[in-house]
What we know:
The protein has three domains: 2-19 and 390-470, Immunoglobulins (Immunoglobulin-like, Sandwich); 27-384, Methylamine Dehydrogenase, Chain H (7 Propeller); 478-580, Immunoglobulin-like, CATH 2.60.40. The chain contains one helix and 47 strands. Strands 1, 2, 32, 34, 36 and 37 form a six-stranded mixed sheet that branches. The protein has a five-stranded antiparallel sheet with strand order 46-43-42-45-47. Strands 3-30-29-28 form a four-stranded antiparallel sheet, with no helix packed on it. Strand 13 (156-162) and strand 14 (171-177) form a beta hairpin. The model is unreliable at 1-19 and 574-581 (pLDDT under 50).
Amino acid sequence: MKKNYLFVLTVLAFCTLFLNASTAPDTVWTRTFGGSNNENCYEGHQTSDGGFIAVGSTYSYGSGSNDVWLLKTDADGNEEWNQTYGGGATDYGYSVQQTSDNGFIITGFTQSYGNGGFDVWLIKTDENGVEDWNQTFGGTENDFGRSVIQTSDGGYLIGGITGSFGAGSNDIWLIKTDEFGIEDWNQTYGYSGEDNCYSVHQTVDDGYIIGGYTNSIGAGNNDFWLIKTDSSGNETWSNTYGGVGGEYSYCVQQTSDNGYIMSGYTDSYGAGNYDFWLVKTDISGNEEWNQTYGGTSSDKARWVIEANNGFFVIGYTDPSATYVYDLFLVKADASGNEEWTKTIGDGGSDYGYCIDQTTDQGFFISGYTNSFGAGGYDFWQIKLDSEFEVDFSASPTYGYYPGLEVQFTDESLGNDLCWFWDFQNDGTYDSFEQNPQFTYTEVGTYDVKLKITSNTKVDSLIKNDYIEVVYVPPAPPTNVQLTMSGDDAVITWSEVDTTMAGTPITVDYYVIRYSEDSLEESLFYYLWSTVDTTFTHERVGMFSEQMLYLVESFIGTREELETYIEMNPVINEQRKVFHKH
Length: 581
C-alpha cells in the first residue's frame, strides 16, 4: 500500500523485506539401471546435449568381477547407451567429466591392468563411450583414482590415494597429464598416517584445490584436509578442520567469492553418531563458518554444490539407526543455515553420491539403490524440479516526484511461472509481465507485492516501504528585492526554473513568510502564497519597525500546497537569505 509523506526535505530510506524461504523441489522422475547383481554409481553430471552421464561399477555386465560402467541417458533419463571397461579382475569407475570434444574422461582404479594390486586408471572415450585410450599409474602397492577434471590446457588432473609413494601408509596423490594421458608431473601430500583425497578442482588462479581427510595431522582421529597448490602442484598452503572425533570430507568446490566449501561428515559435532558437515573458508583457507545437519543417528554427506544463493548437500541418512539408509538432501543458505531437507527411499538402502544443478534450474542426483530396480543395487538417477521461491528487485527504489520510473526484475525460482505485480499493494494487479516497468506519479512510500504461480504452486512476497518517492523543493527564488512604498513593503523576485532528476520543472507557487525575530534565529510565519513573482505587504510600516521576509518555491497542486502550509504554519529557518524591512 501507499503511505503519503508530502514535502520531505531530508529523507532516510529504510526497506523491510519479508522474504519467503524456498521449498524443497518436487521429484520430476527417477530411473534405475542395472542387472541382477550390484551396480554402484559414484558420480553423474548433465551433459552438453541436456542429457546425463554417470559412472560407477557393475557386477552384472562386463568381463570381470567388477567393471567400470559408463551410462548415458537423455534429458528424460532414458538410456541412450552404456559401456563397460575392464579385464578379468576388479575395476571401478569413480569420477567422470565431459571433455571439450564432447567425449568423457573417467578415473577410478584397476586390478586388471598396471603394476600393483590396484592402480589409478584414466580412461578417455568419445561421445558414444567408445574408448580412445587408457593409462594406468601406480607402483607395487594399491593406488586409487578418486576425482578427475580436464584442465585449462586441455590435459587432465587426477586426485587420488597412493600406497606406493609418499611418506605414509596412504598419501594424497595428484597426477597431471597431457591431453593423451601422458604424465606431466605428480605430487604426493601426506605424513606418517593415512591421508585421503576425494575431490580436486582447478582454481581461478590456475592452481588446484584438493579436498579430503587426514589422520596424520589435525585435532582428532581424522580431520577434513584442504590443500591449495600452484599450477605445478607445489603446496601453497593447507589447513585441517575438525574436533577430537572423526571428520571425513568427500567434496570441495571453489565458491563464487573465491573461497571454498567442503562437505562430509563429523562425529565431533552435531546431534548424532555422524552428521552432515559443511565447512566454508575464505580464499586462504581460513574458516568462515561450519554447520552440521542431521538427526540422532548417522547422516553422511558426499557432494556439495553452490546454487540459488546457498548450498545443496547430498548424501544419505539412517533415520531409524538400523543401517538402512535413505537418500538425504539438505539446502543451506549462504551462511550455512538450513532452509529445507528432502529424503527419498523405500525400505532398502538408498545412497545419494552426487548432485548437479541443471540448465532448467532443477537438479540431477546420482547414486545407487536397492529399494528400486532389478538387482541388489542399481544405478539410481533422480531429476528434481527447480526450487519454488518468489523474489524480485527494483531500480531505482528511491527517487523524485513527479514521474519516478522503476524497472522491476523478477528473481524468482521455478519453472512455467506466471507473474502478478501489485506495485502499490492495493489489491489491484498492475502487470503480468516478468520484468515490467512502472511509473510512480505521487509522493509517497509504497509496498510492492509479487505473486507467482506454477502448475501446482502459488507464492507471494511483499516488500514493505520498498519504493520511496520524495518531494524535493526547487532552488529558492533569486534576485529577491525589498522596497518600501509608503507603509507598504513590496517584495519582488525572479521566476525559478529548475530540474528534478534531469526533468525540467516549473515552480507552481511561491510562499511568503515573515518574522520579527533576529537574523540569528528566526521563526517564520505563513503570510501568503501566490503564482506571481511580486507581493505587497500592505501597511506593515504602520505596525513594525523591523520585518524579515522569506520566499519559498513550491511544486505541487493547490491542495498539496494547503496541506503543506497546514503541516508547516511556522518554520525555524536559518539557511535562506532574508530581507529586512
